[in-house]
Amino acid sequence: MASKRVYQKSVNGNSDFIYVDLLPDVKRARQFNVNVIASLFLFIFLSFVFIYMPFRTATERFEELNAINNDLRHELELTQEEFAGYEINLDTIAFEEEIDNLDTYKVDFNNYFDDVILVIDAQGGKITYINYSASNSTMQVTVLHSSPFTFNILNNDLLELSWVETSEFSIPTRTGDAVLYSSTFTLGVDRDVK
Amino acid sequence: MLNRKLSDYLFYGVIVLIIAVVFLIRSVTLGSLNDRIQQLENSNISIQNRNDIIELQVEQYKDVQINHLYELYGKVPNFFSQADLTYYTIAQLELVGITEEVDYQRSVYVKDNVTFPDSSAFADLTDDFKIVEVQVYFNTLDDAVVKDFIDLLYASEQVFIVDSVEYTTPDGFNYIGVTLNFFAFYTLDEEDAS
Description:
Distance between the termini of chain A: 116 Å
Helix content of chain B: 40-55%
CATH class of one domain in chain A: Alpha Beta
Largest interface: A-B, 65 and 67 residues
Order of helices and strands of chain B: HHHEEHEEH
CATH topology of one domain in chain A: Gyrase A, domain 2
Oligomer: heterodimer
Shape of chain A: rod-shaped
CATH architecture of one domain in chain A: 2-Layer Sandwich
Low-confidence stretches of chain A: none
Largest sheet of chain A: 5 strands, antiparallel
Order of helices and strands of chain A: EEHHHEEHEEE
Distance between the termini of chain B: 82 Å
Mean pLDDT of chain B: 89
Shape of chain B: rod-shaped
Low-confidence stretches of chain B: none
Strand content of chain B: 15-25%
CATH superfamily of one domain in chain A: General secretion pathway protein M, EpsM
Number of helices of chain A: 4
Strand order of the largest sheet of chain B: 1-2-4-3
Radius of gyration of chain B: 37 Å
Structural class of chain A: alpha+beta
Mean pLDDT of chain A: 86
Radius of gyration of chain A: 53 Å
Number of strands of chain B: 4
Number of helices of chain B: 5
Strand content of chain A: 15-25%
CATH class of the largest domain in chain B: Alpha Beta
């Protein structure tokens, strides 16, 4: 509906004119306002659910972790002070441990060889050659004996030594004109034996 | 004035925009916070581990009487001198009666920078020490000299490890040749370590 207004110039009606607004009088849609309000509420709701609540939870978690972090740092300072108080030098300790480790590579050759001599002597044998190698963990001993059958007994006796891991012997061969047989025993040496 | 259809489209667009903005804000704020939480968690784990290690070291070493460094360097010197090692070996041989007389045919050869095959028992030690091999040869009528020499080596302040011993047993009348190799250990120089 076009709006119409009458403008009076005088009381007798001369020069009066009528203003007619021909533009349509369209009311602003109410739907638009509802949409704005709905959008606003939606924004608030989504912000609360997806921003505020997770943020609050994360903030609490952060503060909790931060407090633990401060405690741990303080504890670390105290532990470091305690460590310094005992004057512990890790480099020296490591160096000493390496040297101690070196000792485990030592093989008491003299005692081991004495063990072999005792075993061989007990069976009436005679050692003619000795070759010990720590790198290969082996000890080779050439033995002379009058009986070719005794070497097997000797082998069993040698195997009973605590530091002997393995023992093998070559086929006894007769030496020269004498009635003696020679065989070389190869013993596996266990350097870690207690 | 917007018509109804356009207004609806605008509304839907605004909803999508709101959702996008909410999730954008969420990802920015929570993402940053979560990163800091993750950093704190990692930091806490790291500090806790350091704490545990230091506490363990204190517990383990607080009562350990560490030898002074010079004592450790006495066992494994930090300086290698070929001449010193040669003269030391000769001195030990002199002590067991192997003099420079022609009969003994004494020889001492120091071999620097020894390498080992992987199968060798000493292969692992090359990472921790500079290893020097001393090759000794002499003649003797009595193989007890060999044992005495090894005893002297093992009684030395410096760590020596006998690598190989080879000889034929003496008959009491003829000299036998003894070949004996042993290792001396030194700290690794930075150049060696690299």
